């Protein structure tokens, strides 16, 4: 039976430090979280970086370098660098860490969209840093830009470096955009499709949404794709479980959800990895090691 790949997304650019004291911010904390998640069963660690003083997303290659070095010294987990960065950043800025550090995997966001993080304002009383509130508020009037030209630029730069992609699809149209790049021969199978559920501006978190994504991807890509699923916030584990029962791979981590249960903050991404690992193994399925995942996704290693 095929093994299930667990990805752990450790810090991201959606949540801000005042939402949870457990969100890792410094290079050391992000690397430690990555290693703990890998030890708990994650084969892939998806990385963003932050300014250690303020916790603001920092997309400079210099911010990523010490994180990547520390992880490589202590783990063979697959390193997946964000090219999404944050919706406030330019495409060149977003691409720079992956272009310079040439990881095995990088994210590739498949369409421009609204990306609403402003509802989180309601849940946070006090902000420790000046940037946090306007950053969240600004998502009312900000577009997460991923034009066809942007996607092609990231795709061709990464491919020249031997980097393959976690293809992030936030809606059904993004699958058709992937099909367009497949038709043009710009991406080769197996495609690692990360379906993203529950971002305000993308597809929702109903079981029918998950079924529709899977059915559409099956029809468009047949045996040429590997399906992984993430859901934002409190829906994370429910949707990951649903995907696992359908043979999908799963992504968890504090980038996607700060929670481990109703009203209970997760202390780490590793805690979420351990939870979903227990569910996957309880279903009688096996988790993939990093080398299993390299084989499943045809990575350079
Ligand atoms: N934050 C996730 C919903 C990226 O880094 O390219 C999507 C993400 C984007 O991981
Ligand atoms: Zn990310």
Keywords, separated by commas or semicolons:
alpha/beta, TIM Barrel, two-stranded antiparallel ribbon, 10 helices, 39% helix, binds (5S)-5-amino-3-OXO-hexanoic acid, binds zinc ion, transferase, zinc, 3-keto-5-aminohexanoate cleavage activity, BKACE, metal ion binding
Write a concise synopsis of the structure shown.
The chain has 301 residues and is α/β, with parallel strands linked by helices. It is globular.
CATH homologous superfamily title: Aldolase class I
The number of helical elements comes to: 10
Task: Specify the helix fraction band.
Answer: 25-40%
Number of strands: 12
List unreliable stretches of 5+ residues.
Answer: none
**Quaternary structure classification:** single chain
Q: What profile does the largest beta sheet have? A: 8 strands, parallel, barrel
Q: Which class in CATH terms? A: Alpha Beta
Listed once per kind, the bound small molecules are: (5S)-5-amino-3-OXO-hexanoic acid, zinc ion
Strand content: 15-25%
Q: Kindly, what is the distance between the CA atoms of the first and last residues, rounded to a whole number of angstroms?
A: 23 Å
Broad structural category: alpha/beta
Q: Shape from CA axes?
A: globular
CATH architecture: Alpha-Beta Barrel
Widest beta sheet: strand line-up: 1-2-3-4-7-8-9-10
SSE order in H/E notation?
Answer: EHEHEHEEHEHEHEHEHEEEHH
The average pLDDT value, as a whole number, equals 97
Q: How many separate structural domains?
A: 1
The rounded Rg comes to 17 Å
């Amino acid at each position: 039976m095929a093994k299930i790949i667990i990805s752990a997304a450790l810090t991201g650019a959606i949540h801000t430090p005042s939402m949870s004291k457990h969100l890792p911010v410094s290079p050391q904390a992000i690397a430690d979280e990555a290693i703990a998640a890998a030890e708990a069963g994650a084969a892939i660690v998806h990385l963003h970086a932050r300014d250690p003083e303020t916790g603001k997303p920092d997309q400079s290659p210099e911010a990523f370098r010490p994180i990547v070095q520390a992880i490589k010294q202590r783990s063979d987990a697959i390193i997946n660098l964000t090219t999404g960065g944050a919706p406030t950043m330019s495409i060149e800025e977003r691409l720079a860490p992956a272009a310079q550090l040439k990881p095995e995997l990088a994210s590739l966001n498949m369409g421009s969209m609204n990306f609403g993080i402003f509802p989180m304002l309601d849940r946070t009383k006090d902000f420790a840093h000046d940037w946090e509130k306007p950053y969240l508020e600004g998502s009312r009037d900000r577009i997460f830009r991923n034009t066809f030209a942007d996607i092609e630029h990231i795709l061709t730069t990464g491919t020249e470096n031997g980097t393959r992609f976690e293809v992030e699809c936030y809606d059904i149209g993004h699958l058709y955009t992937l099909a367009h790049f497949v038709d043009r021969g710009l991406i080769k199978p197996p495609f690692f499709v990360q379906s993203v559920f529950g971002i305000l501006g993308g597809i929702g978190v109903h079981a029918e949404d998950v079924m529709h994504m899977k059915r559409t991807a099956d029809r468009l890509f047949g045996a040429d794709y590997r399906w992984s699923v993430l859901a934002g916030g409190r829906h994370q584990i429910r949707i990951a479980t649903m995907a696992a029962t359908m043979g999908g791979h799963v992504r968890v981590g504090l980038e996607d959800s700060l929670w481990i249960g109703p009203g209970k903050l997760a202390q780490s991404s590793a805690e979420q990895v351990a939870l979903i690992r227990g569910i996957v193994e309880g279903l009688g399925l096996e988790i993939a090691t990093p080398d299993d995942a390299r084989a499943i996704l045809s990575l350079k290693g």
